[in-house]
Amino acid sequence: LLIGYHKPSIRHADSAVFDAVQDILASGRTSRFYRSLVQEKKLAVAAGGFPGFPGDKYPNLFLFFSVAAAGKTNEENEKAMLAEIDRLRTELVSEEELARVKARVRAQLVRQLSSNSGLAGQLASYQVLTGDWRNLFRRLEAIDKVTREDIQRIAQTYFTERNRTIGYLVPETQAAAKN
Questions:
Q1: Burial class (CB in 10 A: 0-12, 13-18, 19+), 49
Q2: Where would I find the beta strands (DSSP E) of the chain?
Q3: Dist. CA 62–CA 165, nearest whole Å
Q4: For residue 105, how many other CB atoms are within 10 A of its CB?
Q5: Is the pLDDT of residue 28 over 90?
Q6: CA-to-CA distance for 42 and 71, rounded, in angstroms?
């Protein structure tokens, strides 16, 4: 299951908010998608997302995905994922959840800059994507300024039915059985 929402480029003022949303909904085993779809409901074997697909330089997609567990359907996964997205639209994230996001982003950046090649790669990437390598360090300031209300505003603005595309990948055997 793929769910894509159109979003602006990395140069947009809300880019850091999109990163926070990605961390909350779709990044790793602590994310809402993983806890809900994989651990609790056992609908999926994997669930996550990417805030800049296929790349960040130009307007792109915030892409969410899940891989249905055996005996479960894309439709069940879609319903559960949309419920989590809707929850982000209607409820403020907790202060604790936002604090964890900010701590993870800071730690991730420090890890990326801990080697010569990591530092060179990140500086070059930000130069190419944003036109200024210093934006790499401004990113931390931007993340620190993200509020719970910013996250809800982004979800309400961009995660709408009108701005959404949903795609199912179905194995040939299942598709043939339905026809």
A1: buried
A2: 2-7, 44-53, 60-68, 164-167
A3: 10
A4: 21
A5: no
A6: 10
